[in-house]
Amino acid sequence: MTDIHPTAIVADGATLGEGVTIGPFCTVGKDVVLGDGVVLQSHVVIDGRTTVGPRTRFFPFAVAACRRRI
């Protein structure tokens, strides 16, 4: 089950795997792919053509904007 906090912004076109958790005040861009079990704790920004592998955890105030796989 995917859990998205009401204050998070997830763009149309973002791909979310199973069990993704997106915390408060996070932003996920339209070209982002989050693998299964990814956790964005709070105030995280993921943008650009970014693919995040399964079970990756981002801590508060992290920013990732890539054109390659993390």
TrEMBL record:
GO terms for biological process: lipid biosynthetic process. Keywords: Acyltransferase, Repeat, Transferase. Pfam families: Hexapep. The keyword Acyltransferase applies. It comes from the Bacteria. One of its GO terms (molecular function) is acyl-[acyl-carrier-protein]-UDP-N-acetylglucosamine O-acyltransferase activity. Its EC number is 2.3.1.129. PANTHER family: ACYL-[ACYL-CARRIER-PROTEIN]--UDP-N-ACETYLGLUCOSAMINE O-ACYLTRANSFERASE, ACYL-[ACYL-CARRIER-PROTEIN]--UDP-N-ACETYLGLUCOSAMINE O-ACYLTRANSFERASE, MITOCHONDRIAL-RELATED. This is Acyl-[acyl-carrier-protein]--UDP-N-acetylglucosamine O-acyltransferase. The gene is lpxA_1.
